[in-house]
Write a structure and sequence with these properties.
Length: about 375
């Protein structure tokens, strides 16, 4: 493979993947819709001059065909993700867009040697837990009535005891958000069509990806953006629930390496991999790390707010991908420090969090426990 198409290549994960490909000597083309909420100023300046740029939509056949001309490998990262309840858009972009790629490869007999697709930790839903009496469980999402009472831990559906969270392995999925369902749907489609038509395919289930270039303008952009903007404006970071939810965070540069590794390594064909961080970190720990890094003296705010549909503890195991020689090399402390410095360099900085939070509260996504 020599000429690689990266869809969503102007975005957060996509642009870092483009950088890694260019550094390794690949010819690279980018297809990106330049969605206004993510790229309000058009093509970002960080895309290398050598990259061929096409503005287009992965739901559009003509845009795909233009982008695929002369290509022999695809890293398909273009996706729709947000907390807002526009449910059909997740499937239109994520599932239909990815399926259309395979449709055109087969229809036009395109010489694509490998496809790597962005999936998500969201395919696991509430994740993996253990009950002392009932063993391993993959519970459904916590009922809102429970969250409204301020009862945060996941309980056994059989005996109602609090469950012990486990690191999530790739063997069992249980998505419960439209985003997660759309990602698993395209996983199943890509593997089925890939095997049937001999198109080697790999799906990457990213944990929470962090680092510079993470858009300020998207409600889904994540904890580092939200906490950093709050802290730099001398506002306390708001920790949902009780601040004790666990997540694993992965540096975007480590994700870019994983994408290219799986593009190149035949051992990754027709497999799904967790792209996991080094350890689980609570929301409260994360908030204090941002505060310390920014040099502020602020206490995190834990006020009983919660996001409807959030998971409690999701920490993935990266052992399968590590067996191919990949490691998450960048510690979270370094990730946060790099991001805070990058944010400080951005022009016209303002607290985007406040506007986003207002919209999410108005849509009844952010709620508050009764006690």
């Amino acid at each position: 493979m020599n000429h690689i198409l990266v869809t969503g290549g102007a975005g957060f994960i996509g642009s870092h993947t483009v950088d890694h490909l260019v550094a390794k000597g690949y010819r690279v083309r980018v297809l990106d819709s330049l969605q206004e909420r993510v790229h309000p100023h058009g093509w970002p300046a960080y895309i290398p001059e050598s990259v061929d740029k096409i503005q287009g939509d992965v739901r559009n056949r003509a845009d795909w065909l233009k982008a695929l001309d002369g290509i022999d490998g695809v890293i398909h990262l273009a996706a729709y993700q947000d907390y807002m309840p526009d449910f059909s858009t997740f499937h239109h972009v994520n599932t239909v867009g990815g399926t259309l790629l395979y449709e055109l490869i087969v229809e036009r007999q395109l010489p694509i040697k490998k496809v790597v697709l962005a999936s998500s930790q969201a395919t696991y839903g509430e994740g993996k837990y253990r009950c002392g009496e009932h063993g391993l469980l993959y519970p459904n999402s916590r009922p809102d009535a429970q969250l409204a009472r301020g009862e945060w831990e996941v309980r056994c559906p059989h005996c109602n005891t609090e469950l012990e969270h486990q690191r999530i392995t790739e063997d069992t999925v249980n998505p419960h958000t439209t985003y997660g369902i759309s990602k698993y749907a395209v996983e199943m489609t890509s593997f089925s069509l890939g095997r049937k038509y001999d198109i080697p395919t790999t799906n990457m289930r990213y944990s929470i990806v962090q680092g510079p270039r993470n858009s300020f303008f998207n409600a889904y952009s994540g904890i580092c953006r939200i906490f950093t903007l709050r802290v730099l404006h001398d506002q306390p970071p708001v920790c949902y629930e009780d601040g004790q939810s666990l997540r694993d965070y992965i540096y975007v540069g480590d994700v870019a390496r994983a994408n290219v590794l799986c593009l190149e390594d035949e051992r990754a064909d027709f497999r799904a991999f967790n792209v996991a961080g080094q350890r689980g970190t609570t929301t409260l720990e994360y908030a204090n790390m941002v505060i310390q890094t920014a040099g502020r003296h602020i206490e995190p705010l834990v006020n009983g707010d919660y996001r409807f549909g959030d998971t409690r503890h999701t920490v993935s195991s990266g052992e399968a991908l590590q067996s191919l020689g990949w490691r998450p090399e960048t510690p979270l402390e370094q990730v946060i420090a790099e991001y805070v410095e990058w944010v400080k360099e951005q022009p016209n900085l303002r607290d985007f969090y406040a506007e986003t939070a207002q919209k999410m509260r108005a849509a009844n996504i952010i709620r508050r426990a009764q006690s």
